[in-house]
Write a structure and sequence with these properties.
The chain crosses the membrane at residues 12-32, 44-66, 87-104, 116-136, 143-159, 165-189, 201-220, 240-260, 295-314. With 335 residues, the protein is mainly alpha-helical. The chain has helices at residues 2-38, 47-68, 85-111, 114-120, 124-136, 142-165, 170-193, 201-222, 225-231, 238-264, 267-288, 295-324; strands at residues 70-71, 75-76. 78% of the residues lie in helices and 1% in strands.
Length: 335
């Protein structure tokens, strides 16, 4: 009995530490990126270049860990190379979605405030339901659809209140919607690609960052950032590169902490944790930037957060019921 209690205590402590690390790293990453994109001390109007540099940092770390097999005694990192032709054929389509996802998310963060950032990207759940039906033919329960309806209403209310408060950014909101769409597609297609990398999430992250380094170059050209970079005069600043490296380390850390949280809990628990983290992030951001919001603005956030959490909980209950339902003998695998 004591041994079981000790094991449970150890497990809960591990989960608490991992979830806490995810919260801290995720919130810090958002604030660091917002500083890089909008701070007067950086003053570089090239968000895709900053994101590209973060991909280089993440790729360099992943490459080093892959060569060494990870950090001895702490965690292992799967070996692999992104330059295999067979791997490229399988992973590059997903890498395109990954590149567009992080590009639009960061462009959204540049144009909107941190308090509105979560609401601006809150339609991912709605797109998940739509694409699960279109691409996978997976039906969604009526109560989950009702949650999606409330999320859309909360999103609309949040946009309306941002507009009334004078802080609404149309282009930032559009980037947020596109980012939600790409995140949804990325999540769905990740399930199809993971078997090609032996279900190794870290290895997939390594490959995605490798291909993103190349894919971001035409995006930077289209966004007109090459001219901005040629005219930028702060490249000699040590402080500038220090901030850039910190942003890159945060980018790698959030990827690792996300994977670790999913591993020690579950994908749905990760969604619930992310929703609760977003609530804390919104409160911290309003205090940090000394922004005053009205009651309807807070109501929109509450609707989106509560509906997202309920959706994740309903899906969790449905999965539990499905896992306990016996499979008919004729449908069971012979293996």
């Amino acid at each position: 009995m004591k041994s079981q209690q000790s094991e449970l205590c150890s497990l809960y402590t591990k989960i608490f530490v991992v979830v806490s690390c995810y919260w801290v790293v995720s919130i810090v990453t958002v604030f660091v990126n917002k500083t890089l994109f909008s701070s007067q001390t950086v003053a570089l109007e090239a968000p895709l270049f900053i994101t590209w540099f973060q991909c280089i940092i993440s790729f360099s770390i992943c490459f080093t860990l892959s060569q060494n097999g990870g950090v001895p005694g702490i965690f292992s990192f799967p070996k692999g190379t992104p330059w295999s032709m067979d791997v490229m054929k399988k992973v590059i389509p997903l890498a395109i979605m990954y590149t567009l996802m992080i590009a639009t998310n960061n462009l959204c963060l540049k144009h909107v405030g941190v308090p509105f950032y979560y609401v601006g990207r809150s339609l991912t759940t709605v797109f998940n339901v739509v694409f699960s039906w279109i691409l996978l033919r997976q039906a969604t329960s009526s109560r989950c659809i009702l949650c999606c309806a409330f999320i859309i209403f909360g999103f609309y209310l949040g946009v309306d209140q941002e507009n009334l408060l004078g802080s609404f950014s149309l282009i930032g909101t559009i980037y947020g919607v596109v980012g939600s769409l790409m995140l949804s597609l990325y999540s769905i297609f990740t399930k199809k690609v993971l078997p090609y990398v032996n279900q190794e999430v870290l290895l997939l992250s390594y490959y995605n960052n490798a291909y993103s380094i190349i894919l971001f170059i035409p995006l930077m050209l289209i966004n007109g950032e090459m001219t901005v970079l040629m005219n930028y005069t702060n490249f000699q600043s040590t402080y500038f590169w220090f901030q850039m490296v910190i942003g890159g380390l945060c980018g790698f850390a959030i990827g690792y902490c996300t994977s670790l949280q999913i591993k020690v809990t579950s994908p749905l628990t990760h969604n619930i944790s992310g929703t609760a983290k977003a609530c804390a992030q919104t409160v911290i951001a309003t205090q940090w930037y000394n922004e005053s919001k009205n009651a309807l603005w807070w109501t929109s956030n509450l609707i989106v957060l509560a509906s997202s959490a309920l959706y994740a909980r309903f899906k969790q209950l449905e999965m539990e019921v499905k896992s306990k339902t016996p499979v008919p003998e004729e449908k069971q695998s012979l293996v």
